[in-house]
Amino acid sequence: MAGTAADKKKITLIVLSGDLDKVLAAFIIAVGAASAGIDATMFFTFWGLNVLRKSGGRAKGNWMQRMMALLNRGGADRLPLSKFHMAGIGTRMMGRLMRQFKMPNVREMIALSKELGVKLIACTTTMGIMGIAKENLIPEVDAFAGVATYIAEAGESKINLFIS
Amino acid sequence: MAGTAADKKKITLIVLSGDLDKVLAAFIIAVGAASAGIDATMFFTFWGLNVLRKSGGRAKGNWMQRMMALLNRGGADRLPLSKFHMAGIGTRMMGRLMRQFKMPNVREMIALSKELGVKLIACTTTMGIMGIAKENLIPEVDAFAGVATYIAEAGESKINLFIS
Amino acid sequence: MAGTAADKKKITLIVLSGDLDKVLAAFIIAVGAASAGIDATMFFTFWGLNVLRKSGGRAKGNWMQRMMALLNRGGADRLPLSKFHMAGIGTRMMGRLMRQFKMPNVREMIALSKELGVKLIACTTTMGIMGIAKENLIPEVDAFAGVATYIAEAGESKINLFIS
Predict the structure, then answer these.
(1) Residues on chain A touching C147 (C-beta within 8 angstroms)
(2) What percent of chain B has pLDDT over 70?
(3) A124 lies within 8 A of chain B by CB
(4) Looking at residues A83-99, what average pLDDT do you find?
(5) pLDDT tens for residues C145-154?
(6) Which helix (H) or strand (E) holds C155?
(7) Is the sign of the CA dihedral C80, C85, C88, C89 positive or negative?
(8) Which of A40, B164, C47, C68 could join B16 in a cystine, given CB atoms 3.0 to 4.6 angstroms apart?
(9) Rounded CA gap, A57 and A75, in Å?
Protein backbone atom coordinates (compact mmCIF):
# COMPACT_ATOMS: atom_id res chain seq x y z
CA MET A 1 0.00 0.00 0.00
CA ALA A 2 2.84 2.36 0.81
CA GLY A 3 3.72 2.14 -2.89
CA THR A 4 0.50 3.73 -4.06
CA ALA A 5 1.09 6.65 -1.69
CA ALA A 6 4.12 7.81 -3.68
CA ASP A 7 2.26 10.88 -4.88
CA LYS A 8 1.52 12.78 -1.69
CA LYS A 9 -2.12 12.17 -0.96
CA LYS A 10 -4.08 13.85 1.78
CA ILE A 11 -7.15 12.89 3.75
CA THR A 12 -9.58 15.18 5.57
CA LEU A 13 -12.28 13.90 7.88
CA ILE A 14 -15.16 15.84 9.39
CA VAL A 15 -16.24 14.23 12.65
CA LEU A 16 -19.75 15.44 13.55
CA SER A 17 -20.62 12.38 15.61
CA GLY A 18 -19.63 11.89 19.23
CA ASP A 19 -20.60 8.20 19.20
CA LEU A 20 -17.86 5.79 20.23
CA ASP A 21 -18.12 3.50 17.21
CA LYS A 22 -18.09 6.32 14.66
CA VAL A 23 -15.29 8.22 16.40
CA LEU A 24 -13.22 5.02 16.52
CA ALA A 25 -13.81 4.44 12.81
CA ALA A 26 -12.62 7.99 12.13
CA PHE A 27 -9.43 7.50 14.15
CA ILE A 28 -8.74 4.07 12.62
CA ILE A 29 -8.87 5.68 9.18
CA ALA A 30 -6.84 8.77 10.12
CA VAL A 31 -4.17 6.76 11.93
CA GLY A 32 -4.13 4.18 9.11
CA ALA A 33 -3.63 6.93 6.55
CA ALA A 34 -0.91 8.67 8.58
CA SER A 35 0.89 5.34 9.03
CA ALA A 36 0.95 5.07 5.25
CA GLY A 37 2.55 8.49 4.96
CA ILE A 38 -0.63 10.31 4.03
CA ASP A 39 -1.31 13.69 5.66
CA ALA A 40 -4.45 13.43 7.75
CA THR A 41 -6.63 16.19 9.18
CA MET A 42 -9.65 15.73 11.43
CA PHE A 43 -12.24 18.50 11.88
CA PHE A 44 -14.36 18.02 14.98
CA THR A 45 -17.76 19.73 14.94
CA PHE A 46 -21.07 19.53 16.84
CA TRP A 47 -21.11 16.31 18.99
CA GLY A 48 -17.68 15.40 17.66
CA LEU A 49 -16.28 18.23 19.80
CA ASN A 50 -16.92 15.95 22.81
CA VAL A 51 -13.89 13.92 21.75
CA LEU A 52 -11.69 16.92 22.39
CA ARG A 53 -13.24 18.01 25.67
CA LYS A 54 -11.46 17.84 28.99
CA SER A 55 -13.24 15.42 31.28
CA GLY A 56 -13.67 17.68 34.26
CA GLY A 57 -14.22 20.96 32.45
CA ARG A 58 -16.95 23.31 33.60
CA ALA A 59 -19.10 24.96 30.95
CA LYS A 60 -19.24 28.73 30.58
CA GLY A 61 -21.82 30.97 28.99
CA ASN A 62 -25.53 31.56 29.53
CA TRP A 63 -27.91 28.96 31.00
CA MET A 64 -28.72 27.45 27.62
CA GLN A 65 -25.09 26.93 26.72
CA ARG A 66 -24.41 25.49 30.17
CA MET A 67 -27.41 23.14 29.88
CA MET A 68 -26.33 22.02 26.39
CA ALA A 69 -22.85 21.37 27.76
CA LEU A 70 -24.28 19.48 30.75
CA LEU A 71 -26.57 17.24 28.70
CA ASN A 72 -23.81 16.62 26.28
CA ARG A 73 -21.00 15.80 28.70
CA GLY A 74 -17.80 15.18 26.84
CA GLY A 75 -14.42 13.67 27.26
CA ALA A 76 -12.86 10.88 25.22
CA ASP A 77 -13.67 8.31 27.94
CA ARG A 78 -17.36 9.05 27.96
CA LEU A 79 -18.48 8.59 24.37
CA PRO A 80 -21.56 6.34 24.05
CA LEU A 81 -22.13 3.69 21.39
CA SER A 82 -24.53 4.78 18.64
CA LYS A 83 -26.54 1.59 19.25
CA PHE A 84 -27.02 -0.58 22.34
CA HIS A 85 -25.59 2.00 24.72
CA MET A 86 -28.13 0.61 27.25
CA ALA A 87 -27.43 3.00 30.09
CA GLY A 88 -23.73 2.34 29.65
CA ILE A 89 -23.77 -1.48 29.76
CA GLY A 90 -23.37 -2.03 26.01
CA THR A 91 -20.78 0.72 25.79
CA ARG A 92 -18.72 -0.73 28.66
CA MET A 93 -18.94 -4.17 27.05
CA MET A 94 -17.62 -2.71 23.80
CA GLY A 95 -14.78 -1.11 25.75
CA ARG A 96 -13.83 -4.49 27.20
CA LEU A 97 -13.99 -6.18 23.80
CA MET A 98 -11.75 -3.44 22.40
CA ARG A 99 -9.15 -4.09 25.11
CA GLN A 100 -9.39 -7.83 24.49
CA PHE A 101 -8.77 -7.32 20.78
CA LYS A 102 -6.00 -4.83 21.54
CA MET A 103 -7.84 -2.00 19.84
CA PRO A 104 -6.71 1.36 21.25
CA ASN A 105 -9.41 3.35 23.04
CA VAL A 106 -10.20 6.93 22.02
CA ARG A 107 -7.72 8.45 24.46
CA GLU A 108 -4.98 6.21 23.06
CA MET A 109 -6.11 7.00 19.52
CA ILE A 110 -5.65 10.72 20.24
CA ALA A 111 -2.10 10.05 21.53
CA LEU A 112 -1.34 7.86 18.50
CA SER A 113 -2.70 10.54 16.17
CA LYS A 114 -0.41 13.15 17.67
CA GLU A 115 2.63 10.87 17.33
CA LEU A 116 1.84 10.32 13.66
CA GLY A 117 1.20 13.99 12.97
CA VAL A 118 -2.56 13.85 12.43
CA LYS A 119 -3.91 17.42 12.68
CA LEU A 120 -6.82 17.82 15.13
CA ILE A 121 -8.97 20.90 14.46
CA ALA A 122 -11.89 22.14 16.56
CA CYS A 123 -14.69 23.84 14.61
CA THR A 124 -15.18 27.38 15.87
CA THR A 125 -18.48 27.78 14.01
CA THR A 126 -20.20 25.26 16.31
CA MET A 127 -18.22 25.61 19.57
CA GLY A 128 -20.36 28.55 20.64
CA ILE A 129 -23.75 26.94 20.15
CA MET A 130 -22.51 23.76 21.88
CA GLY A 131 -21.45 25.82 24.91
CA ILE A 132 -17.81 24.84 24.49
CA ALA A 133 -14.95 27.32 25.01
CA LYS A 134 -11.30 26.91 24.06
CA GLU A 135 -10.31 26.27 27.68
CA ASN A 136 -12.71 23.28 27.78
CA LEU A 137 -10.68 21.48 25.14
CA ILE A 138 -7.60 19.29 25.56
CA PRO A 139 -4.16 20.71 24.66
CA GLU A 140 -3.80 18.17 21.83
CA VAL A 141 -5.99 20.39 19.64
CA ASP A 142 -3.77 21.80 16.88
CA ALA A 143 -6.00 24.57 15.66
CA PHE A 144 -9.34 26.32 15.97
CA ALA A 145 -10.89 27.04 12.59
CA GLY A 146 -14.10 27.41 10.64
CA VAL A 147 -15.57 26.29 7.36
CA ALA A 148 -13.20 28.30 5.14
CA THR A 149 -10.24 26.35 6.48
CA TYR A 150 -12.14 23.09 5.99
CA ILE A 151 -12.94 23.90 2.35
CA ALA A 152 -9.31 24.76 1.67
CA GLU A 153 -8.02 21.53 3.27
CA ALA A 154 -10.65 19.33 1.62
CA GLY A 155 -9.96 20.93 -1.74
CA GLU A 156 -6.44 19.55 -1.56
CA SER A 157 -7.41 16.11 -0.28
CA LYS A 158 -7.76 12.90 -2.25
CA ILE A 159 -10.03 11.36 0.37
CA ASN A 160 -12.77 13.40 2.05
CA LEU A 161 -15.16 11.80 4.49
CA PHE A 162 -18.03 13.10 6.61
CA ILE A 163 -18.55 11.04 9.74
CA SER A 164 -21.97 11.73 11.22
CA MET B 1 -8.42 30.25 0.62
CA ALA B 2 -9.93 31.81 -2.52
CA GLY B 3 -6.48 31.44 -4.02
CA THR B 4 -6.52 27.67 -3.86
CA ALA B 5 -9.85 27.64 -5.67
CA ALA B 6 -8.29 28.98 -8.86
CA ASP B 7 -8.79 25.67 -10.62
CA LYS B 8 -12.55 25.27 -10.66
CA LYS B 9 -13.38 22.75 -7.96
CA LYS B 10 -16.79 21.34 -7.33
CA ILE B 11 -18.49 19.90 -4.26
CA THR B 12 -21.41 17.49 -4.14
CA LEU B 13 -23.23 16.60 -0.93
CA ILE B 14 -25.78 13.87 -0.38
CA VAL B 15 -28.08 14.80 2.49
CA LEU B 16 -29.84 11.65 3.76
CA SER B 17 -30.40 13.00 7.26
CA GLY B 18 -33.26 15.25 8.25
CA ASP B 19 -31.70 16.08 11.62
CA LEU B 20 -31.17 19.77 12.34
CA ASP B 21 -27.50 19.53 13.29
CA LYS B 22 -26.50 17.44 10.27
CA VAL B 23 -28.55 19.51 7.84
CA LEU B 24 -26.97 22.68 9.23
CA ALA B 25 -23.50 21.19 8.81
CA ALA B 26 -24.36 20.38 5.18
CA PHE B 27 -25.52 23.93 4.48
CA ILE B 28 -22.55 25.50 6.27
CA ILE B 29 -20.25 23.51 3.98
CA ALA B 30 -22.23 24.14 0.78
CA VAL B 31 -22.59 27.87 1.48
CA GLY B 32 -18.94 28.07 2.54
CA ALA B 33 -17.85 26.41 -0.69
CA ALA B 34 -20.11 28.56 -2.85
CA SER B 35 -18.78 31.71 -1.12
CA ALA B 36 -15.29 30.59 -2.16
CA GLY B 37 -16.39 30.31 -5.79
CA ILE B 38 -16.76 26.53 -5.76
CA ASP B 39 -19.82 25.02 -7.48
CA ALA B 40 -21.93 23.25 -4.88
CA THR B 41 -24.71 20.71 -5.38
CA MET B 42 -26.87 19.19 -2.65
CA PHE B 43 -28.82 15.97 -3.25
CA PHE B 44 -31.60 15.46 -0.72
CA THR B 45 -32.76 11.88 -0.22
CA PHE B 46 -34.75 9.87 2.35
CA TRP B 47 -35.19 11.99 5.55
CA GLY B 48 -33.19 14.79 3.96
CA LEU B 49 -36.19 15.45 1.69
CA ASN B 50 -37.90 16.93 4.77
CA VAL B 51 -35.68 19.98 4.37
CA LEU B 52 -37.33 20.70 1.04
CA ARG B 53 -40.92 20.05 2.08
CA LYS B 54 -43.55 22.77 2.30
CA SER B 55 -44.70 23.15 5.88
CA GLY B 56 -48.42 22.83 5.30
CA GLY B 57 -48.32 20.27 2.50
CA ARG B 58 -50.75 17.36 2.52
CA ALA B 59 -49.41 13.93 1.58
CA LYS B 60 -50.81 12.03 -1.41
CA GLY B 61 -50.73 8.34 -2.25
CA ASN B 62 -51.93 5.20 -0.49
CA TRP B 63 -52.36 4.90 3.29
CA MET B 64 -48.79 3.72 3.82
CA GLN B 65 -47.32 6.67 1.97
CA ARG B 66 -49.63 9.05 3.83
CA MET B 67 -48.69 7.49 7.17
CA MET B 68 -44.97 7.68 6.35
CA ALA B 69 -45.45 11.33 5.39
CA LEU B 70 -47.42 12.01 8.59
CA LEU B 71 -44.88 10.39 10.92
CA ASN B 72 -42.14 12.12 9.12
CA ARG B 73 -43.55 15.64 8.99
CA GLY B 74 -41.25 17.92 7.12
CA GLY B 75 -40.51 21.55 6.59
CA ALA B 76 -37.27 23.36 7.25
CA ASP B 77 -38.63 24.77 10.54
CA ARG B 78 -39.42 21.37 12.02
CA LEU B 79 -36.16 19.43 11.83
CA PRO B 80 -35.24 17.76 15.14
CA LEU B 81 -31.77 17.57 16.67
CA SER B 82 -30.13 14.14 16.25
CA LYS B 83 -29.48 14.10 20.01
CA PHE B 84 -31.28 15.71 22.97
CA HIS B 85 -34.40 16.57 20.94
CA MET B 86 -36.27 15.91 24.22
CA ALA B 87 -39.80 16.41 22.88
CA GLY B 88 -38.65 19.62 21.26
CA ILE B 89 -37.03 21.32 24.25
CA GLY B 90 -33.43 20.61 23.24
CA THR B 91 -34.15 21.47 19.63
CA ARG B 92 -35.76 24.81 20.58
CA MET B 93 -32.82 25.60 22.84
CA MET B 94 -30.44 24.95 19.96
CA GLY B 95 -32.56 27.25 17.78
CA ARG B 96 -32.19 30.03 20.35
CA LEU B 97 -28.44 29.49 20.65
CA MET B 98 -28.17 29.66 16.87
CA ARG B 99 -29.95 33.01 16.83
CA GLN B 100 -27.76 34.28 19.64
CA PHE B 101 -24.63 33.30 17.73
CA LYS B 102 -26.08 34.77 14.53
CA MET B 103 -26.07 31.40 12.78
CA PRO B 104 -28.70 31.33 10.03
CA ASN B 105 -31.52 28.80 10.52
CA VAL B 106 -32.31 26.21 7.85
CA ARG B 107 -34.87 28.44 6.11
CA GLU B 108 -32.27 31.22 5.90
CA MET B 109 -29.64 28.72 4.77
CA ILE B 110 -31.90 27.72 1.86
CA ALA B 111 -32.29 31.38 0.85
CA LEU B 112 -28.55 31.96 1.16
CA SER B 113 -27.86 28.86 -0.93
CA LYS B 114 -30.10 30.11 -3.72
CA GLU B 115 -28.37 33.52 -3.71
CA LEU B 116 -24.98 31.86 -4.01
CA GLY B 117 -26.09 29.47 -6.75
CA VAL B 118 -26.02 26.22 -4.74
CA LYS B 119 -28.02 23.62 -6.68
CA LEU B 120 -30.72 21.87 -4.64
CA ILE B 121 -31.79 18.50 -6.07
CA ALA B 122 -34.57 16.23 -4.78
CA CYS B 123 -33.94 12.50 -5.17
CA THR B 124 -36.73 10.97 -7.26
CA THR B 125 -35.66 7.41 -6.35
CA THR B 126 -36.76 7.88 -2.74
CA MET B 127 -39.57 10.49 -3.05
CA GLY B 128 -42.11 7.77 -3.81
CA ILE B 129 -41.37 5.52 -0.86
CA MET B 130 -41.30 8.55 1.45
CA GLY B 131 -44.78 9.54 0.25
CA ILE B 132 -43.52 12.85 -1.10
CA ALA B 133 -44.75 14.31 -4.42
CA LYS B 134 -43.25 17.18 -6.40
CA GLU B 135 -46.04 19.52 -5.28
CA ASN B 136 -45.10 18.88 -1.63
CA LEU B 137 -41.70 20.47 -2.18
CA ILE B 138 -40.69 24.13 -2.02
CA PRO B 139 -40.12 26.04 -5.27
CA GLU B 140 -36.42 26.51 -4.40
CA VAL B 141 -35.76 22.95 -5.64
CA ASP B 142 -33.69 23.23 -8.83
CA ALA B 143 -34.13 19.72 -10.16
CA PHE B 144 -35.61 16.29 -9.59
CA ALA B 145 -33.14 13.55 -10.38
CA GLY B 146 -31.99 10.04 -9.55
CA VAL B 147 -28.76 8.22 -8.91
CA ALA B 148 -27.42 8.52 -12.49
CA THR B 149 -27.35 12.30 -12.15
CA TYR B 150 -25.69 12.01 -8.75
CA ILE B 151 -22.94 9.74 -10.10
CA ALA B 152 -22.28 12.15 -12.97
CA GLU B 153 -22.07 15.17 -10.65
CA ALA B 154 -19.95 13.41 -8.04
CA GLY B 155 -17.62 12.12 -10.74
CA GLU B 156 -16.73 15.74 -11.53
CA SER B 157 -16.40 16.87 -7.93
CA LYS B 158 -13.27 17.33 -5.88
CA ILE B 159 -15.16 17.03 -2.60
CA ASN B 160 -17.90 14.42 -2.15
CA LEU B 161 -19.63 13.98 1.17
CA PHE B 162 -22.44 11.76 2.41
CA ILE B 163 -24.35 13.31 5.28
CA SER B 164 -26.38 10.67 7.09
CA MET C 1 -23.70 10.07 -18.00
CA ALA C 2 -21.91 7.07 -19.45
CA GLY C 3 -19.99 9.63 -21.52
CA THR C 4 -18.37 11.25 -18.52
CA ALA C 5 -17.21 7.85 -17.30
CA ALA C 6 -14.82 7.45 -20.24
CA ASP C 7 -11.85 7.92 -17.95
CA LYS C 8 -12.07 4.97 -15.57
CA LYS C 9 -13.38 6.33 -12.31
CA LYS C 10 -13.73 4.37 -9.13
CA ILE C 11 -15.97 4.65 -6.10
CA THR C 12 -15.34 3.33 -2.59
CA LEU C 13 -17.99 3.33 0.11
CA ILE C 14 -17.57 2.61 3.80
CA VAL C 15 -20.81 1.28 5.26
CA LEU C 16 -20.71 1.63 9.05
CA SER C 17 -24.49 1.77 9.44
CA GLY C 18 -26.74 -1.27 9.56
CA ASP C 19 -29.90 0.82 9.15
CA LEU C 20 -32.14 -0.14 6.24
CA ASP C 21 -32.41 3.33 4.72
CA LYS C 22 -28.68 4.06 4.84
CA VAL C 23 -27.72 0.60 3.56
CA LEU C 24 -30.19 0.99 0.69
CA ALA C 25 -28.72 4.37 -0.18
CA ALA C 26 -25.25 2.79 -0.24
CA PHE C 27 -26.37 0.02 -2.58
CA ILE C 28 -28.31 2.40 -4.84
CA ILE C 29 -25.11 4.41 -5.30
CA ALA C 30 -22.80 1.39 -5.73
CA VAL C 31 -25.14 -0.32 -8.19
CA GLY C 32 -25.73 2.98 -10.01
CA ALA C 33 -21.99 3.53 -10.35
CA ALA C 34 -21.32 -0.05 -11.48
CA SER C 35 -24.12 0.26 -14.08
CA ALA C 36 -22.27 3.28 -15.45
CA GLY C 37 -19.07 1.26 -15.79
CA ILE C 38 -17.43 2.63 -12.66
CA ASP C 39 -15.61 0.18 -10.36
CA ALA C 40 -17.36 0.10 -7.02
CA THR C 41 -16.10 -1.25 -3.69
CA MET C 42 -18.09 -1.43 -0.46
CA PHE C 43 -16.34 -1.82 2.91
CA PHE C 44 -18.69 -3.04 5.63
CA THR C 45 -17.67 -2.23 9.20
CA PHE C 46 -19.28 -2.13 12.67
CA TRP C 47 -23.10 -2.36 12.29
CA GLY C 48 -22.73 -2.48 8.52
CA LEU C 49 -21.38 -6.02 8.92
CA ASN C 50 -24.99 -7.05 9.68
CA VAL C 51 -25.74 -6.69 5.98
CA LEU C 52 -23.33 -9.53 5.25
CA ARG C 53 -24.38 -11.85 8.06
CA LYS C 54 -26.14 -15.16 7.47
CA SER C 55 -29.61 -15.04 8.97
CA GLY C 56 -29.39 -18.18 11.08
CA GLY C 57 -25.74 -17.94 12.09
CA ARG C 58 -24.76 -18.63 15.67
CA ALA C 59 -22.19 -16.37 17.28
CA LYS C 60 -18.90 -17.72 18.56
CA GLY C 61 -16.49 -16.28 21.09
CA ASN C 62 -16.76 -15.27 24.74
CA TRP C 63 -19.99 -14.19 26.44
CA MET C 64 -19.51 -10.55 25.57
CA GLN C 65 -19.01 -11.27 21.89
CA ARG C 66 -22.04 -13.59 21.90
CA MET C 67 -24.16 -10.98 23.65
CA MET C 68 -23.06 -8.26 21.22
CA ALA C 69 -23.92 -10.62 18.34
CA LEU C 70 -27.30 -11.46 19.91
CA LEU C 71 -28.31 -7.84 20.54
CA ASN C 72 -27.17 -6.96 17.12
CA ARG C 73 -28.82 -9.72 15.13
CA GLY C 74 -27.93 -9.45 11.50
CA GLY C 75 -29.01 -10.63 8.11
CA ALA C 76 -30.01 -8.51 5.15
CA ASP C 77 -33.73 -9.12 5.86
CA ARG C 78 -33.58 -7.78 9.39
CA LEU C 79 -32.15 -4.30 9.06
CA PRO C 80 -34.21 -1.67 10.92
CA LEU C 81 -35.05 1.82 9.67
CA SER C 82 -32.93 4.55 11.28
CA LYS C 83 -36.15 6.41 12.18
CA PHE C 84 -39.70 5.20 12.85
CA HIS C 85 -38.68 1.56 13.22
CA MET C 86 -41.52 1.39 15.81
CA ALA C 87 -40.99 -2.20 16.92
CA GLY C 88 -40.86 -3.23 13.29
CA ILE C 89 -44.09 -1.61 12.05
CA GLY C 90 -42.44 1.33 10.30
CA THR C 91 -39.74 -0.88 8.88
CA ARG C 92 -42.26 -3.37 7.47
CA MET C 93 -44.27 -0.52 5.98
CA MET C 94 -41.12 0.77 4.28
CA GLY C 95 -40.50 -2.75 2.93
CA ARG C 96 -43.98 -2.79 1.40
CA LEU C 97 -43.54 0.65 -0.12
CA MET C 98 -40.24 -0.49 -1.61
CA ARG C 99 -41.94 -3.47 -3.27
CA GLN C 100 -44.73 -1.25 -4.54
CA PHE C 101 -42.22 1.13 -6.08
CA LYS C 102 -40.22 -1.83 -7.46
CA MET C 103 -37.15 -0.91 -5.41
CA PRO C 104 -35.00 -4.01 -4.80
CA ASN C 105 -34.65 -5.05 -1.16
CA VAL C 106 -31.22 -5.48 0.42
CA ARG C 107 -30.99 -9.18 -0.47
CA GLU C 108 -31.75 -8.32 -4.10
CA MET C 109 -29.30 -5.42 -3.97
CA ILE C 110 -26.55 -7.83 -2.89
CA ALA C 111 -27.37 -10.14 -5.84
CA LEU C 112 -27.44 -7.18 -8.21
CA SER C 113 -24.12 -5.94 -6.86
CA LYS C 114 -22.49 -9.30 -7.51
CA GLU C 115 -23.83 -9.38 -11.09
CA LEU C 116 -22.39 -5.95 -11.74
CA GLY C 117 -19.04 -6.73 -10.15
CA VAL C 118 -19.32 -4.55 -7.05
CA LYS C 119 -16.67 -5.71 -4.57
CA LEU C 120 -18.01 -6.47 -1.07
CA ILE C 121 -15.37 -6.35 1.66
CA ALA C 122 -15.82 -7.21 5.35
CA CYS C 123 -13.71 -5.19 7.79
CA THR C 124 -11.52 -7.52 9.83
CA THR C 125 -10.59 -4.76 12.29
CA THR C 126 -14.13 -4.65 13.67
CA MET C 127 -15.36 -8.25 13.09
CA GLY C 128 -13.78 -9.40 16.33
CA ILE C 129 -15.27 -6.77 18.62
CA MET C 130 -18.68 -7.28 16.98
CA GLY C 131 -18.50 -11.01 17.72
CA ILE C 132 -18.64 -11.90 14.03
CA ALA C 133 -16.51 -14.69 12.51
CA LYS C 134 -15.89 -15.40 8.84
CA GLU C 135 -18.28 -18.37 8.91
CA ASN C 136 -21.10 -16.04 10.07
CA LEU C 137 -20.92 -14.11 6.80
CA ILE C 138 -22.59 -14.86 3.47
CA PRO C 139 -20.49 -16.34 0.64
CA GLU C 140 -21.04 -13.20 -1.46
CA VAL C 141 -18.25 -11.48 0.52
CA ASP C 142 -15.30 -10.98 -1.85
CA ALA C 143 -12.60 -10.25 0.68
CA PHE C 144 -11.74 -9.75 4.33
CA ALA C 145 -9.48 -6.78 4.87
CA GLY C 146 -8.49 -3.98 7.20
CA VAL C 147 -7.83 -0.27 7.06
CA ALA C 148 -4.65 -0.51 4.94
CA THR C 149 -6.66 -2.02 2.08
CA TYR C 150 -9.31 0.66 2.51
CA ILE C 151 -6.77 3.48 2.32
CA ALA C 152 -5.24 1.98 -0.81
CA GLU C 153 -8.63 1.60 -2.53
CA ALA C 154 -9.88 5.03 -1.48
CA GLY C 155 -6.62 6.61 -2.63
CA GLU C 156 -7.45 5.48 -6.17
CA SER C 157 -11.12 6.47 -6.06
CA LYS C 158 -12.74 9.57 -7.49
CA ILE C 159 -15.73 9.26 -5.15
CA ASN C 160 -15.28 8.30 -1.49
CA LEU C 161 -18.23 8.19 0.86
CA PHE C 162 -18.66 7.27 4.51
CA ILE C 163 -22.15 6.00 5.27
CA SER C 164 -22.81 6.09 9.00
Answers:
(1) 28-29, 32
(2) 93
(3) no
(4) 86
(5) 999 999 999 9
(6) helix C147-155
(7) negative
(8) B164
(9) 9
